[in-house]
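SAMPLE LOG
Freezer: B-3
Tube label: C17
Construct: single chain, 507 aa
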Amino acid sequence: MGFLKNRKDPDTDTSHLSKNLGQYAAKAFASVAVAQIIANIIGLGGSIALARILGPSDFGLMAMLATAIALLTVFENFGLYFATIQKKYLSSDELNFLFWVNLFIAVLMSIIMFISAPFIADFFEQPELKELAQVLSIAFICRGAANQHSALLNRKFQHGKSSISTVIAIFFATVGAIIMAVIGFGVWALVWRQIIEAFVKFVMLWILTGWIPRWVRWKHEYIPSLTMGANITAANLMYYLSRNMDDILIGKFIGNAGLGYYKLSYQLLLLPLRRLSEPVSQIMIPLLSQLQDQPERYLKNYVRVANLLILALWPIGVIFMIHAEILINIIFGAEWISAAGPLKWLASLLLIQGLTSGTGWLLITQARSKEMLYWSVFTSVTTIAAFVAGLPYGIVGVAAAYVIIEYARLPLLFYIVGKHGPVSMKNIYGLIWVHAPAILMFIAIQYSVGQVIVDYNILLQILFIGLSGLSVIPAMLLLPHSRVVVFSSILYIHNKIKDQKRKSKID
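STRUCTURE (predicted):
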């Protein structure tokens, strides 16, 4: 292939972005938005199809395996993805060096996964996990080989290319998994779904960047990137413990069926959260990194995008909080109804996720990785304690304990994040004040509808939930503060579209 002959180093310079940073960001947002809509449709459709073909036990086995995968994934990129993006001035030598560090660590994680497979199977007392884990270890190498290519594209706001790779990878992985499930591969369909996605994305990113890494020698100037990566990795390890200990405890003491119900409810909410917040993070981290020395523009962009993310997430959270049983029954079938209990609790986290997701942008782009590490240690300890406290009350108790501790930590989180940098604690609480009245109004509306439709047939329930969902519009527009946010956001998006069209005509 022609691209393999291109041994030239990629251009890492981002100085040209400063003149039209808004246009680059707007174009990146548009690319990611379209890609995520497509990815959402493919991913959700695939999950629904697989849930109907496979059973809770298959998903429970994969959830057990996912805890080990997530642990090793913490070390997989060693935080170097963010180090590449956050650094305003990055040499091609350093980029090549970071690639080889990433690949070495990914290969090491793959080997560890393969070797530890028997111990994973013994811990959960599920012998079939051994072979599943060993095969799945292939995915680590693919992801490690693609990490810096993805970081390079996103650093330069070439999100269109990285979005293409994501959509194509998800499409092939989903189609392949469904075919395998239909012909009787069982839980193996879920395993190969991850491997196919990682492999296809790796191939696409290498093709789209045209970058073949070369070997470089160690230089002392690489230490800051490695230090930042190490801090982020340690923080992510703590977050892993706090976000996966619930799966470990449920799988060990309640069983794979209970874990299957719990994991489905978690993933049902994680899908819109990831498909919205993670793509936004892909753009906000490079955007705010470019504005490190411009505090006013930094604050303005943070507030604007945080508002948009909050507006996108909280209506979904309210709908799932109030109508969990109905939605589970409609989407996945009556056999999954036990997932409704934890779903109600976990859905309430979407009311604040639009805000808490942004705190990570601030710490990373301000190079405050040490504070990020300290906070993650505190989060891990308190979350694990909450899981243990909730475990005697089943999967609903674990979900409830998790939600309670998340809300209890918010004031301290806002204090830590807001004590330094352009975004103050006052700015963060201002975001809450703007949206809280509309959220409360929408909750009241949905609760009233839920009481009325409880005895209706499924078709009428769907109709009334859909119609009542439209009440989110007056809930936002009736209140002056949220109305200003909505109209200013619409105007901002409209102006960016006009600017892009005008630029296209000139070109």
